[in-house]
Specification:
single chain; 227 residues; alpha+beta; 7-stranded antiparallel sheet
Amino acid sequence: MTDIFEYLAARPYPGRGILIGTSPDGSPLCAYFIMGRSANSRNRVFEKTGDGIRTRAFDEAKMEDPSLIIYHPVRRLGRTLVVTNGDQTDTIRDYLESGGSVYDALASREFEPDAPNYTPRISGVVFPGGDFLLSILRADGAEAPACERFYFTYPPRTGTGRFISTYEGFGGPLPSFSGEPPAFAVPGLEAEPLAERLWACLDADNRVSLYVAAGAREILINKNKER
C-alpha cells in the first residue's frame, strides 16, 4: 500500500489533488490541495463558506483571468460531500440536488479548455455511509482531443484511502494522471497534524493551498498567509 507522504514528496508537481478515505478510528477523511506555476495560479487562498470552501484571489489587483482558478472546491449537500478542481463542484451539487446522478453531472462536462495542457477535471464525492467515487475527465491526446471519462467507486475501508491528481509531473504539455487512483494507508493523526504533514510533503515552490477535513475538524493552510 502506498505511503501517501512519500508519494507526494516524490512528485514536485501533481497539480491539484484529492484524497478520500477512512481514518483508523472509522471517521471520514477528505483532503484537497492546489499547486501553481504561474503568478495568477499562485495568487490564491482557500476560505471557508457556509457549505464548504472557495478559492479567492489573495491580491485582487494582481488577478488576471479568474475563469479556471476561482471556484468552490468543496460543497456539502446534506451528508454528501463534493470536492473537485473546478466549477464542476457546482454542477455535481446541482444535479444531486435535483435528483440526478454524479454520472449525469459529469457527462455534461469535459476537461478544461487550457490548451495545450487540457487540464483534467478531477472530482470526488463521499456519499452518506462512506462509499465514495473518484473521477477524472481528461483529453485523449489527439490533435483535436476528445474527452475520456473514468469513474472509480470504493466502499469505506478503515485505515485506507485513495488519491487522484490532475498531473503526474512536469512536461510539455503537462502529463495527465493515468491509471487507477492508488490506495494509501490513512495515518492515525488528528486533522491539524495530518494537514501539517501533507503540507510539508508538497513542493515548497509550487504549493498554494490545502484543505483537510478529518472527523469533525476542517483545516485550511494557505501559502500566501505564511508571509
